[in-house]
Amino acid sequence: MSASDDELMAALRDMWQADDPVPDDLVERMVAVVAADDLSREYALLTLVEDATAAVRGDTETMILQFSDGRVGVLLHISTAEKGTRRVDGWVDAAATEVVLEQGDRSWSTEPGEHGRFAFTDVPPGLCRVRLTVADPEGGRGFTTPQFEA
Fold first, then answer.
1. 30-to-14, 18, 26, 122 alpha-carbon distances in Å
2. Could you tell me the sign of the dihedral formed by the alpha carbons of 39, 40, 43, 47, in that order?
């Protein structure tokens, strides 16, 4: 006499429920873990500081964006060049070792200067994000901004 798959699965389920039952608060804990998993990205607030249509040196569009996760702050100044490309000037307030500007499949990489300054030129218009590697005594850690329009 052989048991059907359903009967075997029911017997296994009963065994595990008796020997190692699911904790009562597992669902609530899992919801909290999943919600907190993306919390640092959620907290990386995109703050539009200024949106000006006339820059100091002409009729180019400029935008200043500020991102922070409570540990790392990034300020970006995005301006339109004459040929329609963008220039992204930035400053980071943490000891970053690398700054990468990502746009789709393309990326540009640089090291920030002594005061955390970095720049990317000839960036085509479109959605971008900045990814930082921040120096940390226990190893590098990352910081990524939400996407923004360059």
1. 23, 22, 6, 44
2. negative
Q: Which amino acid is at 38?
A: D
The pLDDT tens digits along the chain (150 residues) read 467 888 989 988 899 889 888 888 888 887 777 666 655 555 554 444 444 333 444 455 788 999 988 888 999 999 998 888 999 999 999 889 999 999 999 999 999 998 899 999 999 999 999 999 988 766 668 899 999 988
- The three state secondary structure string of 70-87 is CCCEEEEEEEECCCCCEE
Other Cβ atoms within 10 Å of 72 Cβ, number: 20
Total Cβ atoms within 10 A of residue 112: 19
* Residues 6+ away with beta carbon under 8 Å from 70: 43
One-letter amino acid of 123: V
Q: What is the pTM of this model?
A: 0.60
- Report the run of H or E that residue 18 belongs to, with start and end: helix 5-19
